[in-house]
Amino acid sequence: MTSSSPEAAPSEAARELERLIAIMARLRDPETGCPWDREQDFASIAPYTIEEAYEVADAVARADMPGLKSELGDLLLQVAYHSRMAEEQGHFAFADAARAINEKMISRHPHVFGEAAARSAGEQTALWEAQKAQERAARAQTGTLDDVPLALPALARAEKIQKRAARVGFDWPDPEGAREKMMEEIEEVRAEIAPGASPGAPSAALVDEMGDLLFSAVNWSRMLGVDPEEALRAATRKFEARFRRVEAIAAAQGAGMKGQRIDVLEGWWREAKRAEKA
After folding, report:
1. Burial of 132 (0-12, 13-18, 19+ CB in 10 A)
2. CA 250 to chain centre
3. Where are the alpha helices (DSSP H) in the chain?
4. What is the dihedral of CA 4, 7, 12, 13, to 10 degrees?
5. How far apart are CA 56 and CA 71, in angstroms?
6. What is the pLDDT of residues 45-95, one digit of tens each?
């Protein structure tokens, strides 16, 4: 068990960070490093960075603390990896990245590190957004949507774009407007479904309208106070659990799912749902 006292933790953390940075430098050494690690660049490593962030979120969702420890380490490796490549190219080093976030957090929390006061989470959020707006202005990013990352998952990015637009008043006055818009988009999707069209070859117009429908569903969810990303994750987990029960039911009857009549599959599905409540 390692010590977690305020006196011991910083020096221990510093030692382990220095060790990680040294390991990364060794792996990237042009003469004695790992051939695979030497060949990587920012673009090739970025997908791994995204994957590791999702694995952190997965460990959190499962309340898996040993897994979370491991996944956070994997994510930290990604920070060290990008920082090492940047240092090799003369841009910045790990310490610069750490310094940047330290300064940003101090700047964005004047009620903690300065003289500003925030009596509630709402006031703190207002201070945070005001500071972020100043930072965007300093970077000549004056548009409301300027710094929404392109690499966000589509569902999460849609919600973030909508929240940004809502800050400047570009939003429905209530959830009913968002619901009506979604129903309108459903009809527009239906209008683009050509009779006899192959499901594997949708028209560009159908793809466009389906995108509008999904965007409007995210908007309605947001206005109802439901996190669309978490709601979809939960729905997918629920479907996965039920589908596995259906597979088990089919196996217990000595049958496979493929080729079964839809009424048989539906019956197994209802049985799986009943098993959830048992």
Report:
1. middle
2. 35
3. 8-27, 35-39, 42-61, 65-88, 94-108, 110-113, 121-138, 154-167, 175-192, 204-223, 228-252, 262-277
4. 80
5. 5
6. 999 999 999 899 989 988 999 999 999 999 999 999 999 999 999 999 999
